[in-house]
Amino acid sequence: MKVSIFLLFLFCSVNLIAQERTPEQKLDELGIELPEITPPVANYIDVVQSGNLLFLAGKGSRNENGTRITGKVGVDLTIEEGYEAAKSIALQHLAVIKKEIGDLSKVVRVVKVLGMVNTDSGFTQHSQVINGYSDFMVEIFGEKGRHARSAVGMNSLPVNLAVEIEVIVEVEEN
Questions:
Q1: What is the pLDDT of residues 117-132, one digit of tens each?
Q2: Which 3-state string (H, E, C) describes 6-42?
Q3: What's the pLDDT score for residue 15?
Q4: What is the value of pTM for the model shown?
Q5: H helix runs in 50-156, sequence order
Q6: Which domains occur in the chain, in start order?
């Protein structure tokens, strides 16, 4: 009896591992295509790899058509719109990561996220906005997408962006 239970457990475990979907498969299932990478607007590059860490430059919020999402969250945009703006940056970062390493399955861990929200001085719900980024990374990478994070308010962001986020990602060694 003990052997049968063990074999059943082993079979179920192997089956679950075999059914694990890749990040690309999860994006396909959600009907999401990664956006075109917008070039940097100043003297910097999108990503620097040091060892097995990728340091991604801050990206700003963009609509599906590529136009910038601008304005102050809590004044010009709702928290929900800010959440979607943060999620749009996750898509951009995934596109940069994929271009850099070729396969999102090579991501070992999303390590650290710095989320900046364009707000006025009375706004206090920065975390709810940056959850758009964090929730999406966990949806795509599972536990590997769970990360340390800072969510802060800014009096302004470049070109009046609603949200800007930078991230550090650990990837498999070559």
A1: 999 999 999 999 999 9
A2: HHHHHHHHHHHHHHCCCHHHHHHHCCCCCCCCCCCCC
A3: 47
A4: 0.88
A5: 79-101, 126-141
A6: 21-171 (3.30.1330.40)
